[in-house]
Amino acid sequence: MNVPKRRERRGIIATEKGWNLYVCGNGGMKPRHADLLAADLDHDTLIQYLDRFMMFYIRTADKLTRTASWLDNLEGGIDYLKSVIIDDKLGLTNIWKPRWRACARR
After folding, report:
1. How many C-beta atoms lie closer than 10 Å to residue 54's C-beta?
2. How do strand 10-15 and strand 35-41 relate by DSSP bridges?
3. What is the pLDDT of residues 8-44, one digit of tens each?
4. What is the 3-state secondary structure (H, E, C) of 20-69?
5. To 10 degrees, the CA torsion angle through 80, 99, 69, 34?
6. pTM of the full predicted structure?
């Protein structure tokens, strides 16, 4: 089992049952440990959650905003982020899946 680097912006840690996904850590002047977004994921679910996280962050964060600051300012914090990424509360998969496919065909 790997030891998590919890200060990284994102982290994927192998476990005996699959993968743990950590997000929104920060090093530097204002260090912040990453939060566990989901645990014991299979490979396909891990990729799906990473895709959702990155697209949600890219679409909602101001330019040059670090993930840690973005999460600190996100209404509902990590619980809201989990509902968006894990439960697909906003239906992002249906919105972005056609765009992902279009990009993959290029």
Report:
1. 13
2. unpaired
3. 556 899 999 999 999 999 888 888 899 999 999 999 9
4. EEEECCECCCCCECCEEEEEEECHHHHHHHHHHHHHHHHHHCCCCCCHHH
5. 70
6. 0.81
Q: How many domains does the chain have?
A: 1
Domain presence at residue 1: no
Do 60 and 76 meet the contact criterion of CB atoms below 8 Å apart? no
- Collect all residues with Cβ–Cβ distance below 8 Å to 93 and sequence separation of at least 6: 48, 52
Domain enclosing residue 95, as ranges:
10-105
Residues 67, 23: contact at Cβ < 8 Å? yes
Residue 77 structure tokens: 């914090």
In a domain? residue 72: yes
User: Does residue 5 fall inside a structural domain?
Assistant: no
Residue 34 falls within a domain, yes or no? yes
pLDDT of residue 5: 47
